Fold this protein.
Amino acid sequence: MSDKARDMRITLRVWRQAGPGAPGRFETYQAERVSPDMSFLEMIDVVNEDLIGRGQEPIAFDHDCREGICGMCSMVIDGVPHGPHRGTTTCQLHMRSFADGDTVTVEPFRARGFPVVRDLAVDRSALDRIIQAGGFIGVATGNAPDANAMPVPKEASDRAMDAAQCIGCGACVAACPNASAMLFTAAKVTHLGLLPQGQPERYRRVLGMVTQMDLEGFGGCTNFGECQEACPKEIGVWTIARLNADYLKGTVTARDDARAGGEAG
Amino acid sequence: MSTARLDAKVPGGPIADKWDRHKFEMKLVNPANKRKYTIIVVGTGLAGGSAAASLGELGYNVLNFCIQDSPRRAHSIAAQGGINAAKNYQNDGDSVYRLFYDTIKGGDFRAREANVYRLAEASVSIIDQCVAQGVPFAREYGGLLANRSFGGAQVSRTFYARGQTGQQLLLGAYSALERQIAAGSVTMQARTEMLDLIVQDGRAVGIVVRDLVSGKVESHFGDAVVLATGGYGNVFYLSTNAKGSNVTATWRAYKRGAAFGNPCYTQIHPTCIPVSGDYQSKLTLMSESLRNDGRVWVPKAGGDKRRPQDIPESERDYYLERKYPSFGNLSPRDIASRAAKEACDEGRGVGETGLGVYLDFADAIKRLGEAKIRERYGNLFDMYERITGENPYRLPMRIFPAVHYTMGGLWVDYNLMSTVPGLFVLGEANFSDHGANRLGASALMQGLADGYFVIPYTIGNYLAQVKPGSWAAGAAEARAAESGAVGRIDRLLGINGTRTVDSFHRELGRIMWNDCGMARKAEGLRNAIARIPELRDEFWRSVRVLGRGESFNQSLEKAGRVADFLEFGELMCRDALHREESCGGHFRVEHQTPDGEARRNDEQFCYVAAWEYRGEAAEPALHREPLHFENIKLATRSYK
Ligand SMILES: Cc1cc2nc3c(=O)[nH]c(=O)nc-3n(C[C@H](O)[C@H](O)[C@H](O)COP(=O)(O)OP(=O)(O)OC[C@H]3O[C@@H](n4cnc5c(N)ncnc54)[C@H](O)[C@@H]3O)c2cc1C
Ligand code: FES
């Protein structure tokens, strides 16, 4: 159980903002009796209990699974989305990564495409709309052939899985100096583009998703590579290279198709 | 509602023909008429997401809701180990019938045969559907799908995507859903919570919701309502469920007339990371698939505080292998959990708290090499290390049972319709397929079977008998439900007491864990039934919820959910008290064999308990749906 000798004291600077239009500011809070075995969110829970006790509204933040898989938690900790531990979401970050007496700054994911809802919670529905623009295989329920009818090389399937692991948290966007959603988009394009099932819509998909990404106000990718550093699932920029190749091919094919269509008509 | 009204509507004929025959006999909605019907689907997990997408594809007008900021974040995303299907790709003797048999037996003969058989049949199509959507299941070098084994089965029928099967299946359903949203057939409202069900002329016609961002309360209407809102494990406060998982939607439906089936059936999962302190907010599951290669043990002697590596083989007790030689480490969950509890009760538990047992991979690493183990379980091992700070490749994991899944849920008939006409319930939210204990990798199967392959047919049969749009939005019931929801919010905000919501939730959780957990006794249950109403009164007197209703207010959200858990917990205990037998996850200390195994009482309890709400002041009424085992002989479950 909680071992008093290991307990730490942490000073938190937390971004508080009442709503999307409201001005925001940093507030300072003391977190006492922080056990190294606590998760970062459990530490915030304790601070919140304390705030409620003192009649102050608790810090709003998104979270759900607390297992690093739902992609809901979304804090920038000391300037880094999801904090200092590589390949780890905020909810899986433990206080043993900090030292007694540390001051820690906590902010929401910041990007034009992610307006603040309140305090540390942001609106990431733009990512859903990118998926709507093509991040699927169009197969209605009941249409599928036997699962083993089409073998998929293990390497392709494993690589697809590497990309498919994306939890849609948006840390890549928050980390990018251009607030680009390129890694998010590329992960889905790569996942589906590596599988035989994903081939028929491969180029439509990439064109649709990239267009939507631009419409949502995300910036362009200029190869900073910060996204892959911040990705809690360690998805690499190799997926962006694949997206770019598919995008180029898709653009050319679309132009050819348009010309062919024109001639036929 | 009399017991007669609990008509399960199981079609006639031999078990293998029932579903086909029913599909033929059900009425259809003409394709051109489908868009005139509005269907409300609450939930976007495997059950709700697959249902909303499939109903949208059929042409219905679907309104879909979830509490998270995106449908992709439903709790299903966290499922790790896998999904069962009777594909028999391994040529190891599997079949629809065997999956049916294993599920009935695993559920300790407390599930309805016809539903379980249909589930086993649908399992085959689920895998096809998911692969077609691009779900990257694990494969062999030849390019075909790989399988592994799960507890309670002697065949290898579990399909998986590393340790993230739920994520990949949910993303498949989510992508189908997003496709329908883009097509305009599904309207999605994320960050929206259902607070009540609207019933008119005895039919479910709508829901009252709160927009969690603006805080506005409003009503939505439809020709049918589908609840796929997940399980209620969080009544224990600490569980492996996501923090937002709740009983609110199903509890509110119960209070509007939907009978609650077997609320006491909860599953305590044997392999979770032990609790480390009072601040703990949730428990983390280590997938049961680990038991394929990990061996469970404790020291033979009580109080042995040596480090695991210093305890020689001869002084270790691999108790599952010893007690259940034919299933060993793959014994079903209820059995494995209870065995761990017994070992700890005997003082042989490990770790600082003594509430833990080892799950050891040393032999598997020796046999297969570290790389193979990393490939199979890498992300689970990493997660373990992140949480505990210990490296499971070097040291055995420490695990302990934790609340994980709830087999109970709203009672539904064969069509997945509750006792309120027009209200359908899917996935973990219903009681239907797992009896008193669910086998591993079967919840994902059930959620997707319900959503992709059952509801698209059965809801049509209902709608074909209803005129589209026959509800009255301004009628008294609708207004009353809405003002009731607003009134509750105002009341919660008006108390301004001294205790936080979480402190009540923790206290309720302790009562439930001690008195309605892994081992239940009449005395403890009576104590809980007396204690919970007191705690509830105290909650309504002294909880402190700050802020406003019309804003993004997470304390208020939690308060509403905990208020419902404080009512629901009592019903769970009542159900547990009335069931004078041990079956599956429901272990009554008074009912065990001399060697400590569960003792069922088929003579008196071979039925589904469906509880009917009769008002605040009255006790709920018990209705019984007798279970008939026509295909599988009712027998004592043995995994020895
Ligand atoms: C850690 C973990 C691992 C698991 N691993 C496996 C596994 O390997 N294999 C397996 O078969 N099963 C597994 N399970 C069980 C399985 O994941 C769940 O039973 C299943 O995913 C439940 O799906 P569902 O669609 O019924 O509900 P959920 O996925 O819980 O979805 C509920 C939905 O309802 C919405 N909702 C809830 N309440 C409201 C409300 N009041 N208003 C509006 N919306 C609401 C939520 O937003 C969500 O969209 C696991 C469970 C856990 C906790
Ligand atoms: S809370 Fe789910 S990923 Fe952090």
About this structure: The pocket of FE2/S2 (inorganic) cluster (ligand 2) is lined by residues A 63-66, 68-73, 89-91 (CB under 6 Å). The CA atoms of residues 85 and 127 of chain B lie 7 Å apart.
